[in-house]
Amino acid sequence: MTELVRVLRGLRRLTDDPRDAFLHRLRIGLAVAALILILSLLR
């Protein structure tokens, strides 16, 4: 569990620019969606 928290903290992005924060969240969301899709296709 500690490793998961460490990885998730590494994904956080601290920025004041809302556009940059949105793009970062969008990239992370797409990466997670692709991972879920790949895992579901492997079953």
Automatic annotation (TrEMBL):
Transmembrane segments: 22-42
Key words of the record: Membrane, Transmembrane, Transmembrane helix
Superkingdom, taxonomy of origin: Bacteria
Protein name: Uncharacterized protein
